[in-house]
């Protein structure tokens, strides 16, 4: 089984809403998830997540502690995702969809529960205690 190293960013705004993006590409095109993607050669997880959030949402963030890890099965390969808790450099910045995102937004819990999310997203966030706080 081939594993591909990936990262995801768990970022809440001052109101407790969660940053999510709508995936523009497979796997799970059209589904909503936290921003993230592949770790490039020579990058550590923190560097990769900062780059991915900037590319997908235009937001500058600081990477923090590991929130958790998930395996995302696909036809091939399997994505091994390390999700990190991030904080915004500019708390008032507004996300704008970038390269791999069709849309980007901060959402509250009720909205998140209505969105078509990537498999296991809500379960993982709940297990880590990181669902939107409003």
TrEMBL record:
UniProt-listed PROSITE patterns: NUDIX, NUDIX_BOX
Requisite cofactors: Mg(2+)
Keyword Hydrolase part of the UniProt annotation: yes
InterPro entries: Nudix_hydrolase, NUDIX_hydrolase-like_dom_sf, NUDIX_hydrolase_CS, NUDIX_hydrolase_dom
Keyword terms: Hydrolase
EC number: 3.6.-.-
Molecular function GO labels: hydrolase activity
Residue ranges of domain Nudix hydrolase in the record: 2-130
Protein name according to UniProt: NUDIX hydrolase
Source organism of this protein record: Klenkia terrae
């Amino acid at each position: 089984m081939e594993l591909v190293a990936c990262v995801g960013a768990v970022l809440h705004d001052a109101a407790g809403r969660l940053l999510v993006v709508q995936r523009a590409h497979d796997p799970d095109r059209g589904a909503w998830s936290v921003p993230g993607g592949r770790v490039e050669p020579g990058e550590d997880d923190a560097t990769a997540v900062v780059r991915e959030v900037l590319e997908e949402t235009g937001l500058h963030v600081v990477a923090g502690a590991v929130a958790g890890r998930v395996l995302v099965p696909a036809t091939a390969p399997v994505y091994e995702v390390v999700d990190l808790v991030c904080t915004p450099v500019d708390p008032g910045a507004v996300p704008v969809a970038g390269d791999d995102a069709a849309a980007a937004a901060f959402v509250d819990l009720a909205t998140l529960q209505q969105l078509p999310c990537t498999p296991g997203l809500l379960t993982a966030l709940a297990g880590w205690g990181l669902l939107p706080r409003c």
